[in-house]
Structures are given as C-alpha cells and as structure tokens.
Amino acid sequence: MLQILASRGDLVLLRDSVEWEGRSLLKALIREVALKGEQVQVLGCEVSEEVFREGLDSDTNSRLVYHDIFRDPQGWTGNWGPLGILRACLRGAEPGPCTLAVDSLSWLLLHAPCSALCQTLRALGHDNSHPGRVRVLGLLHEDVHGPGPLGALRSLAQIEVTVGGNLGFTTAQVFHPKPRHRSIEQTYWFSILPNFSLEFHKEPLLEPRPHRGPQSPTVDAMADLTFNVHLSKKEREARDTLALPFHFSSEKQQSLLHPALASSTSQIFYEPDADDYLDQEDPDDDLDI
Amino acid sequence: MESQQGEGGTELDSQSSIWVNTGGNKMAALTTGFGRARQGGAGDPREYKAETAAGGDKLGGGGGGGDRGCSFLRKVSVPGSGGGGGGGGGARLRSIAGTRPSVQNGQLLVSAGLPALDQLLGRSVSSERRSASSGRREGGRERGKKEGKEQINRRERGCGTIQSEEGASTRPQDLLWGCSSPTAPLGVLLYLRGGGLAVGTLLLIEEDKYNIYSSLIFKYFLAEGIVCGHTLLVASAKEDPGDILQELPEPLHDDNYKKVLDEGRSHKSQEEPEISMKIAWRYQNLPQMEAGPGTSSRFGHYYDVSKRMSQEVIQSAKWHKFFLPEEITSYANVESCALNHGYTKLLHFIQRVISEQGFDGSNPQKKQKNILRIGIQSLGSPLWGDDICCADTPEHMHSLTRFLYVLRGLLRMSLSACIITVPSHLIQNKAVTSRIRNLSDTVVGLESFIGSEKEANSLYKDYHGLIHIHQIPRLNSLICDVSDTKDLAFKLQRKVFTIERLHLPPDLSDTVSRSSKRDLVESAKQLSPGCGMMAGGKEHLDF
Amino acid sequence: MFPELNNLLNVSPDKPEQGKFTLLCDAKTDGGFLVHHFLSFYLKANCKVCFVALLQSFSHYNIVGQKLGVNLIAARDRGQLVFFEGLKSTVEVLFGSKEQPNTLKFIRESSSDLKSLYEFVQKALTPSGDGSATSWKFPVLLVDDLSVLLSLGVEAVAVLDFIQYCRATVCCQLKGNVVALVHDSDQTEDEENAMLMNALGHQSSLILRAEGLVTGFCKDVHGQLKILRRGLLQPKSEQTRSLIYQYKIQDKSVTFFARGLSPAVL
C-alpha cells in the first residue's frame, strides 16, 4: 500500500464512515511521509491541533505544519473563506516535493460549493512553485454526502482508499485506476499502533459465511399433513360431545372443589417414605431474579 | 399443554387430559403462594383481584408480601375522589373539574373525550392483565422480587399455572366471558385509573383520508371540554368554529351509556345468532378493550354521535373563536417573521387568551382556575396558507414545525391541553411528518378503510379503520405507559365510537377455502406493530 | 445516572473522561433516558453543566432528575447548572419585547445563525475568574436535542458549526465534555437530519445509539443500545470498539443485558 502511495499523484482520497474512521490512517500516512524527511501541511477542520498532533512522535510533529480552521469554522472572529485557506496552505511551504493533508474534504464540501472545491483541488496539483510535486491526501466521510459530490471528488482522485473493517480488523481497499493498464485493486489488512505506525497482517482466513440463498419456493402447507383438516359429520359430532380439558364445566368445578367426591380414574396418592428426602426450602431460592 | 396441541385433531384422549389436571392440582398445592391465591379466589373474588393487581401495578410496588391487598385497596379510591396520590401539582389543582392527577408523575390529566382512547394513552393497569401474563413477552412491569419468582415458578411448572387460573375463574361472571364486558366489575374500575392527556401537552391526530373519524375525535375533545366546564379555543381555516360547536355530540350520561352499549350488542346478536363459543381457560380472563365507563368516575364521557348537544349547554360554555378568513382582513402590518402569516396570528391569539384569561397562572388572585382546551383543525392544510401539502420541497418547510414549537412552549407554561388534526397523508415531504411528530406529545394516526382495499378484506370486516398510536410522551418520567396491544381498530357504531384490539375473526366454517385463509394470514402479517416500531426483516429475530 | 451504563462505558463519577464529544442517537424509540443519565452523571461528578434543553421544560428534567438522585433547582441555585430552556425562550422571543436580546432570536428573524447560542454556552462555561467557579471539576455542555434546531429552520451546517465551536471551546480549551442527542429518522427520508447525524458521528469519540427492536414492541426489552468507540484504540481493546446491549427502562434505572438474555426471556 505504501508503495502505491509513494507514487506521486495529485489526489489520494481516503474514504471513511462513522463506523470505521479514517483519521488514524491519515495520521499514519502522514507519519510515513514525514519519516522520509518531507514537510507535511495539514489543513485541520475537524479536530484541534493538539488532538491531531497527539500520539505522533516529535520528529513527525516538527515536520508538520497545522493550518487550523477548527477553532473558527464560520469566521466569527475573522473573515475569510475556507477555500482561501486551502490555497494559502502551500504558499509558506518549502520548495520541493510537498504533501498536503486535508482533514477533511467533507467539511470543505459542507462549507463551500462543490465545483469551487474541485477547481481549487485541481489547481493545487498544478501549483507553480511545486510543479507536479504536490500530493494531496484528502479525508472524505462518504456517508455524509450524496452521490453527486462524492462522484465529483472521485473523478478527481488518482487513488482511492476505502477504510472498512471486518472481524475486528481494519481494512483498506486501495483502488488505483491506471490509464491503459490494468487498474490495481487490492485489500490490505492492518492495525494502527499507538505511535501511528502501520502493522500489516495477512488476510485472516475467512470462515465461509452462512450462505443466504434465495428462499425456496413456498411449499403448500396443507400437502402432507398427518391429520385431517376437515371433519366428517360424524367426527364433528364426536368432537362436540367431548369435554375439552381446557373448558370449564360444572362437573370439573365440583371435582376441583371437592376432590374426595370425584372418583375419577386417575388419583395420585402420595405416601412419604421414611427415607424420603423432603426439602423444606424453596427450590428456587438460589435463583437471582 | 399437550392437550391443547391435540385440539385440531379428530381424536382426543380425555383420559390423558384429566391426568394433566390432577397433576396440576398437586403441583399447585406444593407451590407456596398459589394456595393462598386460590383460597382467596374461592372465597371473595375481590380479594384475589386485589392481590394479583398489586404485582403488575406500580402503585402497590415496594410493599411486597402481606399487605399487597391493602395497599391496592387504599389506592383504588384515587380516581373517584380526584385527589390523593398526585404530586404537588395535583394537590394544588385538585379543584379543577374534569381533571385528575396522574398518580405516578404528578401531572394533571384531562380526558380526550373518548375514554377508550384515554386508556391507550396512559397507564392502564388492569388486574386481568396480570393474571393473564405468562410466557415470553408478557409479565408484570414492576414486579417485586418475590413476585418475579412466583412468575417464574408458574411458568416452569406449567401445571401450576393451570391450577391458579382455574382457582380464579370460579367466579360466575368469568364463565360468561362472551358477554361480560360492560358489566365486568372490577377490571373496569382499574382501567379507569389509566391515562388521559396531560395538561400542557399536545395531542396530534393524523387525519384519515376523508377527515371523517378524525373530525369526530376532534369534536369529542371539545365536547368533553364543555361538559367539564372548561374554556374552549377553537381554530379553523375551513369551517366556522361556531358551526363546529353546533355539531358537537350529546354526552351519554352514566345510565345511558350502558343501555347504548347493550343496544349495540343486542343489535348485533339479532343479525347473527349468538354462537356459544368454547374458550380455553387460558384466554377467558383476558380483558376486552372496549370496557365501558365506570359509574364511579366522573372522568371521561362517552358521546352519542346521533344526537347534537343541546343549545343551552353550548351557550353556557365559554369559548374563543379563531376563524382564519375573518382574522386575515388586512395584510398590512405583517411582521417580517419566519412564520407564516396565519400561524403568527393564531399564536398571538392563543397567547392573548392564555394571558388575559389567566391560564398561565401569572395572576393568582384571579378566581377559580380552569383548563383551556385548544382545538386546531386541519393544521398544515393549504387553507392555512401552508405549502407543505402542495410541494415536495416546500418554500416554507419550517413554518409548521416552528409554529408547533412555539405552541409547545405556550402549552407547557399554561393550564391548557391542545388537540390538532393534521392531514398527514397530504404532506409530501415525509421529513416534515417525522419532525411534526417529534414536536408533538401524543401522536395518534387514523386510517379509515373507506376507499382502501382493506375495506374488502375479511380480516377487517367488523371495523371501520385502524388506529395507530405513533407516540406516547414520556413526561416527568423515564418510562412511558405503552399499552400491550398495538393492533387496534375502531368502528363507529350507531351511536358510539369504539376502539378494540384487532383480532382475526373466528373461523366458524370448516369449508373456508385455503387460499382465502392464507390471504387473511398474510394481511394480518402486514399489520404494523405500532408505536413507531416497525417489524423489519422477515428473518430477523431479536431474541 | 444508571450504574449499569457506567459499567458498560467503564466510567464513574469519580473519574470521568475529559475532552470528549459523545453523540447520543435514538432511532425508532425515545433516547431521552440517555440525556437524563448524563445530566445526573455530570452533576454528581461535580462538573459545571450547561444544559441546552430544547425539547422539554425544566420541570420535566427536574422531576426525572429527582428520581435519579439529583436536584436541578439546587444545582442551579449553587451555580453548578446553567439551564437554557428553549421552549420558554421561544415564547419570550415571539411575545416579549423586541429590544430584549435573546438567544433564539432567529425564530423571528428567519436568519439561522447559532452564534448567540454559542456565546451563551461560552459565557456559561468559561470560568469567571473570581474563584467561585474553581470548585467545579470541569465544564460540560449537554444538548437535548439537536434535531429540534433543524425543525426550527436552522441549516444542518450551522448546527455542525455550532457543535464545532462548542467542541473547540469546551473540549479543547476548557478540557470539558460535550454530549448531544440527535434523532435518527432513518426511514423517513429526512436527508438533512441524516446528514447531520452522520457528520456529528465523525466528530464524536463515542456514539451511543438507542434503537427500538426491529421485531417490534416488547414489554420486557425496550430496545438495544449500540456503543461505538471511535478513534485509535489500544490494540488489546480492539474487540470492544463496538458493543450491543439490550435494555429495559424502569422507573428509576435502566437495566442492560446481553442480547437475548433478558431475565424475562430466560
């Protein structure tokens, strides 16, 4: 994955969701870039600078320039547009190869018109002071936007990384369309360590999931019944004369109220044996209800 | 239990079933607690009732064991006297007619004018429900520890249940289940302790397609206000509120209601001769929804829709009128407001009535406190100048929700209760509907069968429509009192409007074609479980 | 405060977490019990609480609070609780005098700017420096619920920015917490609300989501609670980033149990 990211592209999209957040991966990638001695510009809209720098080693932090929009998203204390800051990010950067991490494109999309954002992003990649040497890592929360803006940004991106997860592992699906070549599509399994270094795993052996095939066509429930659905006249008469056990009759009432009088065929006599163990306690006493 | 499974078969072994019963007898005798219940049942039925009620009933809670019966008896006087166990608010306001304190949460309740609906909207603890409970999804809400244990005992030793239920059912009236409802004595009393609308809240009625039944409920609400001597505020953009008042139904007084209910029943029995039904003991004691009003309570009345309320009564009522076409005479001086013009007018009107008539409690020196009943008809319809019914993405999408929010504020600060009918089926943007519900307290939807394919469905042949309780407020409490039954249907009898729990009609013929049976079962499956919870996937099991 | 929920979240009033934004959601059920939990939790934890109550009146929260062992009136009197009652404030906006500055004045003016509400929160929670505020542990902002703001015509982005300003001030600057409830109207095509909820989810470090049972109403299981922890976790706790429990609300507490293990079902 890191090799792919090493190749220079204008825009790398990191797509994440509420369920699987991608900021940790963004930070891990920033660390990798910084380890190579490059300077990283960060446009931070969603978390504060302290939170963003938290966990990154001092070496990385020293190469990280944080442009903070988080504290004042609507410019209540000053006046500027979010895209203006985006453009300004690269101005103070050192000449040479440069990486800009945007946290996040979603925030920019909510605060600026989609077309303007696309134009600005496009212009960044062709900045005069860093010709062809700017790489933009953009975090995009895909569940916040409709298909329109999402598609527009995807069409700009050279590489898409979709953060997901399965069985407790984080996955990154990398999609790298190459003109005139077979596009690369690969899934990486990894975990991010507390110092934001990446640890790659082999793909865990997926147990075959219970297969939910198409439902079998409904069977006629009446087909092979072991009892009659309909009664003949005689059978019905026999049924009607029957005293049902759940039906309360005066005889039964009598038999219940005066059990001695009811000389039914089944009587239970219980004579305790001398050796019988009789537990006086409530057998359910230990149940905690 | 085995014997029940054999019910459908042609052969039944009477010998084995008797054996089950005698076995049950022995088990029950061994189980402590049931012997006691049974004795009570055989001696004085009331005593048994009281005891079973205490377990399922929150009021009796806390006191486990011996004094359960007593604590219940003490509380039973509450609904009749209109005083007692309410919170501070209840005691302070006890003198207001047509209200009663909510025993649990210290609110003041008013009736919606339809006792059957009141039942659904609040705590409706019944003795019967308690004794009916067993099995997976039932069981008393606030059982004490001991009670819970007994319940488990019952279930584990299924036979024990048999015995105790039979012990209870030695009362004659329970044996006459089929026709016992209006006279069922104790259950009704307990029912009436149940709900009502809390003062300061909003009842939203989602209109049926032709606004027939919803306007009926609207009128019940207003009529109840007049009968209780409350002040009314009627707002409409369509009909003149004066005309609405003229059409209010006549209340059925205590001895009349019974006659009418009986009438309805006998009327029915003339059509189809009473078929003696064999009902398993297990279901004999289940309560019926349409329990009639009790004579001991002055809370909530039934109304006779075939008669109009007498002129003197209407003229004696104090009421305020808001008729939109009359109010909007001049378009000048329209405040630049995020609210639509008609709504702003109405809000100011309500606010003026509340403050001038002292419903906000601001000037306590003012005479007797009273309740203001506000009724607003077809809110959100184009006649109110709203476009949520006309457009998918309306220009004034937030007008109605803003109105409801301000109204909610006004209601919470005053002694008032409000009913609003909204043509929800016309609202194009479903987002608006859900926001409206969220800003209301109680939400009840009516779905009439008129012009719907359900009209022809034999499952619904006894009813005129379905009633969906979409939302019940949790006020001053973590919990809300949801009724057990979600599938409810209503019908308009000759004189009264009744709400019943929906059930499949008994299958009296053996020759019903298989296909139609399957249709019935299918359509029964489509019933929504109600209260905002919809059954989703067919294969899903929560537990 | 429900001790069982504290156990699930592994917190207690003695050692609450700091600097976090917790999002509460409810779908097809009423998640109000979560708001009551956090209100009583932070009051018991001796935090300074600013409660922006948009949905219900003060007395409602107070009565439920008493059942959970906190007295809101007393807390307000001793300065621990700053209570913003949206319903009352709206009525004042509409019927009060126009000159009076009001936090919810957007209702009348059809502009949807939450700056005044933010300034209210900021003023309530920033220590005044005269020593009186130092006795509270840390500040907490609680909002019930944000969906109401959408109904009042505020745009979702404005609500998001409001929460972001509050996070910048309360979580980052003052090292406090923000807790907010938002309704999930999943099936009702309320796109704006769905967008708000997802975007807030991305801002949060903990999501508690109360859901009604998919199979419908049940007397003994009122719903299920999904607990989702976001952000980087210690590798060992990887398995517990997402948990689901079923719950039953009682008069004064809520019991939680693993799925299918309700005492009433067993």
Automatic annotation (TrEMBL), chain A:
GO BP, sorted A to Z: tRNA modification; tRNA wobble uridine modification
Record InterPro entries: Elp5
CDD domains linked to this entry: Elp5
Keyword RNA-binding: no
Pathway: tRNA modification; 5-methoxycarbonylmethyl-2-thiouridine-tRNA biosynthesis
Subcellular location, record wording: Cytoplasm; Nucleus
Keyword DNA damage among UniProt keywords: no
A cellular component term, taken from the record's GO annotations: cytosol
UniProt signal peptide: none
Family: Belongs to the ELP5 family.
Protein name from the UniProt record: Elongator complex protein 5
Annotated organism of origin: Monodelphis domestica
Organismal lineage: Eukaryota, Metazoa, Chordata, Craniata, Vertebrata
Automatic annotation (TrEMBL), chain B:
GO cellular component terms given for this protein: cytoplasm; elongator holoenzyme complex; transcription elongation factor complex
InterPro entries from the UniProt entry: Elongator_complex_protein_4, P-loop_NTPase
Record keyword 4Fe-4S present: no
Origin: domain of life: Eukaryota
Region feature (Disordered): 1-20, 30-71, 77-96, 123-167
Compositionally biased intervals (Basic and acidic residues): 126-158
Ranges in a coiled coil: none
Subcellular location: Cytoplasm; Nucleus
GO BP annotation list: regulation of transcription by RNA polymerase II; tRNA wobble uridine modification
UniProt KW keywords: Cytoplasm, Nucleus, tRNA processing
Keyword rRNA processing set for record: no
UniProt biased composition (Gly residues): 57-68, 80-91
The protein's annotated pathway: tRNA modification; 5-methoxycarbonylmethyl-2-thiouridine-tRNA biosynthesis
Function: Component of the elongator complex which is required for multiple tRNA modifications, including mcm5U (5-methoxycarbonylmethyl uridine), mcm5s2U (5-methoxycarbonylmethyl-2-thiouridine), and ncm5U (5-carbamoylmethyl uridine). The elongator complex catalyzes the formation of carboxymethyluridine in the wobble base at position 34 in tRNAs.
Assembly and interaction partners: Component of the elongator complex which consists of ELP1, ELP2, ELP3, ELP4, ELP5 and ELP6.
Family membership: Belongs to the ELP4 family.
UniProt-recorded name of the protein: Elongator complex protein 4
Gene: ELP4
Automatic annotation (TrEMBL), chain C:
Subcellular localization: Cytoplasm; Nucleus
A UniProt-annotated Pfam family: ELP6
CDD domains given in the database record: Elp6
GO biological-process terms attached to the record: autophagosome maturation; cellular response to stress; homeostasis of number of retina cells; inflammasome-mediated signaling pathway; locomotory behavior; motor behavior; neuromuscular process controlling balance; neuron apoptotic process
Keyword field: Cytoplasm, Nucleus, tRNA processing
Pathway: tRNA modification; 5-methoxycarbonylmethyl-2-thiouridine-tRNA biosynthesis
GO terms for cellular component: cytosol; elongator holoenzyme complex; nucleus
Family annotation (PANTHER family): ELONGATOR COMPLEX PROTEIN 6 (PTHR16184:SF6)
Physiological role: Component of the elongator complex which is required for multiple tRNA modifications, including mcm5U (5-methoxycarbonylmethyl uridine), mcm5s2U (5-methoxycarbonylmethyl-2-thiouridine), and ncm5U (5-carbamoylmethyl uridine). The elongator complex catalyzes formation of carboxymethyluridine in the wobble base at position 34 in tRNAs. Involved in cell migration.
UniProt similarity note: Belongs to the ELP6 family.
Protein name: Elongator complex protein 6
Organism: Monodelphis domestica (Gray short-tailed opossum)
Designated gene of the protein: ELP6
